[in-house]
Design goal:
The complex is a heterodimer of chains A (370) and B (316). Chain A has 370 residues and is α+β, with helices and mostly antiparallel strands. Chain A is 51% helix and 15% strand. In chain A, the strands form two sheets. A seven-stranded antiparallel β-sheet of chain A has the order 4-3-2-1-7-6-5, covered by helices on one side. Classes of the chains: A alpha+beta (370), B alpha+beta (316).
Chain lengths: 370, 316
Amino acid sequence: MVFPGYFTDGCTAERHTVNVMLEAHQLHILDERGVLRDEWSLSGLQLANSAHRAQTTRVIHRERPSACLILADPRALTLLIAAVPHLCRRRTARRSTATLLAVWGAAIVIIVAVVCLGVPRLADPLARSIPLQWEASLGRHVTSTFTHHTNVCRNQPGEAALRTLTERLAATLPAPFPVTVHVSRIPAVNAFALPGGHVVVFQELIESAQSPEEVAGVLAHEMAHQVQRHPLRGVIRSMGLHVVSAAVVGGFSLAAFSGAYVGETMLGLSFSREDESEADRIGVGMLNRANIRADGLIAFFQRYQVTNRSAASGPESTEDHLLTFLSTHPPGQTRIAAIRAMMQGEGDAMTADQWRALQKICGTEPPQKW
Amino acid sequence: MLVYKPVRRFRCDGETEDLFRIFLPNVLLNILTLGLYRFWGKTRIRQYMWSQSSFDREQFEYTGRGSELFRGFLWALAVTGGLIAVARGSSFWLFVVDPQLERMIRVVVTYILYILIGVGTYSARRYLLSRTRWRGIRFAQTGSAFGYAKAKVSLQGMSALTLGLYIPFMRHHLASYKLNNTWFGSEQLVYDGEGRDLLKPFLWAYLLFLPTLGLSWFWYRATEYRYIAEHIRLQDVRFCTTISGSELLRLTLGNWVLLIATLGLAYPLTLMRKARVLSQHLRIDGEFNYALITQNAYEAPVTGEGLVGVFGLGSI
């Protein structure tokens, strides 16, 4: 059988018009004058890139990496495949689907393992190895970027009441650094711990609290985070996650260098469920030793839970369990039961006068600094 | 004596539909593999686009592999990741010791990353050319990626200092560096343009930039394309493109709108539009002496496009 075609030998850019003779074990490539240009064994034949519609057939040979034979006649391919059945298979030796699945599966498992296990596990020893002065300095930096942009409430009698409560709680447990509490003029019920002993409590949390024990409970919880240096661990964890996600998605942002980024990370930070349980346990211990009733904390959680549930999906449902499983906080009922089992304190958090002063800590100051 | 010069055009025979059939599985696999499939996906798209582009009845071939892109990416990730880790670590520590020094280190690291972007784009071009074959002959790029990046930074500095008036010279120099280091087999491309020839069209575009809301830039770019193409030679055969400002404008803005409106899903369509317009206008007047073009011996890079991948700059 003879097919017309073109031949590029991979040595020069010339394209020769050739006739291809198909023999039992070989292809003979003859130019227009009938001179033999090349001989290709059938066993080494391969099809070039998977052919797309209306394209000429391109045949290559394993031992001639740059040469190419172009068959002008579309019927040539059918005849060639009849003679050389392995041409039907893809050019490259195809890995089995099982191998491919195994390789990709392993890759995904490794990534997930690094993200879920490696990063949090490394965060703890790393956080422990960072000197306290560094953390204090980082905390100052982060807190200043935060308090700089929002209004801090500094009504004198209220601050004094808050300081008395903070010192009473701090005296119950040796903290790595003095705790500073900032009340921020932000209309939301929230409080969080920043590295270096800084605790930020939002105005709304204090004003909506039904009793001073609620504030004391929240404060003890956040101070317990401080004692365990959870905020620093959180920073390291989220930085690690950032590096891993950047590796996978393939993009590093220059913003990631800036100190402001660290601050941002802190604000979006959530502690792990273990961290929260631990903070509950240590916080209630602090309340006990300071002889403050812990039912304020329970009341606070219950109120929170009720509003959360009414916002989400009504009465107890499977969805509720799903939500608690997904959220970082331990399930509300478990949490409340654990607190109830531990609590021993019976005294008040502060006097009625102090409580009135604390609730007015944001007082009548103008709402905006600028 | 009149010499007959055949006029040869580039062709793009691809079908948008075929490209979608490659693109959509790529998107799916990308999601399933958290983005790791993109190197193989990109390779498949290139294989298709190259094989559908032809000149003088002979299609182009793309011989790159996904694994090469992947390894290039890992390598670049190690370099930039290491750099960033050091910078992050030191900035964390320097909050404590010396905030002034921290700012300085940030500037230095930003500068290094900026240089690396230039290195990356030049190396990416080297990889792409080394994996492109036509008539069995490889393309290649010589020249130093670092030299290119350094030149780019200083040329950009000059452009900033002259309030942009140096831009046509900068663009000429960069084009010259890239084109004069481009080879088809044993034949070196020659670009013999002059930066000052681009000054007049640039000044017009510069003056009309605000009145035309920036659209005059497209007319400059089209003029620049035509000028550069006309000053490229390979074996004394000249290139030519007939693209006009309005066509370039329609292509670019159209592609932007398509990409934004479909959140990127129209990518195959935009790619095909671009390939069609560019090949429709590019032509070569004359005949190469193919027998004199032999395979080049320039060492092809083993991996490719790592830095471009890390910085997210890759185009095709």
